[in-house]
Amino acid sequence: MNFFQELDQTMKQDFGNRGLLCSLPENPVEQAFVILSSARRVILLTGFPVRMEDGTIIGETDGPSGTADLAAALIGWGAEVLVVTDRPSFALLNEALSYRAPKAALALLPDEQPELFIREYVQAFRPTHFISLERPGKAKDGHFHNMRGEVIDDMVTDSSLFLSEAKRFGAVTISIGDGGNEMGMGAFQEAICRHVPSGEKICTKDAADLTLAAGVSNWWGWGLAALLSIHAGRSLLPTEEQECETLHRVVLAGGVDGCTKKQTETVDQLSMTVHLSILRSVTFLLEKELTARSARMSLLHGKAVQTLTQTA
């Protein structure tokens, strides 16, 4: 099993027992690796809203941390990054980015005329890549849904135009999700409809160029950071201490667990111990791959020197 397959298996650990991941094909990890090599200007979109008992709406903890980690890796790789979210998640992203990726720009998707905003920003920024991570996607019925099948249109600023508009300007589109109701997950429509409760209702209509699934969407922030790290030849992953601090700041800014609706330092009901075990696995796989690639390069260099010496 190679690095890409091992990373795929790590991302697909289903601690939440959602049942979708085992029915999906392999994530296109190696393809994502190749595509990320040309990342120069990247728009990141995230933010999934939760309605609280008192009726207020706030963003969940799945999304901001992973997006901030990915933004940090992209900037470390040398790309320019624009992060976009709507009102419920703006404060969460502001805190996460100020800590992990202060050089990333953050834009608020307006409540009114978001289509105009999207067209103007995509045209001005000219992204090479567009990546959505844990962002609601529009289903076939034209509505946004949570995992329970409830319509959440009043909680979400419609950002669905980003996919088609980014493609129109030549950007590669990548979408990340863990349940089937996220933007771009239409690529897995058959599996979502068959294996996810309310799948036929919540499955998003549109598909990205590449769709990546995980047990928790945040994890692909690390997964893509690991792929960028191979290109960079050094780790662009967060440390465990940085990851704990990022989530701590997201929660202090008001973020809640999307499953429990509680303001706790958990993501999808999973404790930081679980999430850090995934980060530790990704870090181990990356270190092993970087070491192997370095050894291969040294061997090739040695052979080249030997050939030149013999020729001389």
From TrEMBL:
Gene3D superfamilies: TON_0340. Residues 7-281 form the D-glutamate cyclase-like C-terminal domain. This is DUF4392 domain-containing protein. It comes from Candidatus Copromonas faecavium. InterPro entries: GLUCM_C. It comes from the Bacteria. PANTHER family: D-GLUTAMATE CYCLASE, MITOCHONDRIAL (PTHR32022:SF10). Signal peptide: none annotated. Pfam families: GLUCM-like_C.
